[in-house]
Amino acid sequence: MKGIFITLEGIDGSGKTTQAEKISQWLEKRTGNKTIHTAEPYILREFILSNKNFSKMSDLLLFLADRAEHVDKIILPELKQNHNVICERYNESTLAYQNFGHEIINACNFPEPDIKIFLDINPETAFSRVRERNNCNDKFEAEGLNLMKRVAESYRKLNLTRILCDNLNENDVFNMIIAKIEEKIS
Ligand code: TYD
Q1: Where are the domains of the chain?
Q2: Residue whose CA is closest, atom 23 of ligand 1?
Q3: Beta bridge partners of 87
Q4: How confident is the model at residue 172 (pLDDT cuts 50, 70, 90)?
Q5: How far does residue 169's CA lie from ligand 1's centre (Å)?
Q6: Given 57, 149, 172, 174, which residue has the most CB atoms within 10 angstroms?
Q7: What is the CATH topology of the domain spanning 5-185?
Q8: 138 in ligand 1 pocket by Cβ < 6 Å?
Q9: Rounded distance, CA 28 to CA 24, Å?
C-alpha cells in the first residue's frame, strides 16, 4: 500500500503531539506500513524560535527553508519507501501564524498531504494548558492568548479537516480523527 501523508495542525496546547503518537501507532497496524512521526519546525527550530528579533519576512522564509529541508530529507524519502508520514505542523501553520506570503508558500510547491487535520480547541483552554506545562518559551507562545485567538481564527478559514475538540476527551478526539482517516483510505 502507498504511504499516507497526514498533517496535524492547531494552536499550541491543542493536543497535536498526543494525537500524532496515537495516530502513528494505529496507522502502522491498520496499513501494515512503517509509520514516521515527525514535526516542524525541523532542523532550524532552535534558531527560529529563540531569536526574537527576526523580521516577519525572515520568519516566513526561515520556516519555508526549514520545510524545504524537512521535505527533502524526511518526508519525500519516507513516502517513496511507501512509509506513512504523520507531521505536526506544515504549510497551514505558516499560513495561520505568519498570516501573509501565500504566493511565496504556494510557489514552494511542497507535496500536498492526503489529509490535513485541524484540532480546533478554545484558545482559552489551550492557553491554560500551555501555562500549566510552563513552557511558554518560544517567541510565538510568549505572545500569549491574543496570538492564539488570531491563529485559531486564521486556521478556521483554511481548507482543513476540522475536529472540534471542546468538551471531548483524548480518546473521543482520536476516534473522530481515525474515522476521518478511514473515510479517506477505505
Ligand atoms: P513547537 O514548540 O516546536 O511546537 P508546538 O507548539 O507545535 O508543540 O513550536 C513551534 C512554534 O512555531 C509554534 O509557536 C508555531 C510556530 N510556527 C510558525 O509560526 N510557523 C510555521 O510555519 C511553523 C511550522 C511553526
Answers
A1: 5-185
A2: 93
A3: 7, 38
A4: very high
A5: 23
A6: 174
A7: Rossmann fold (3.40.50)
A8: yes
A9: 6
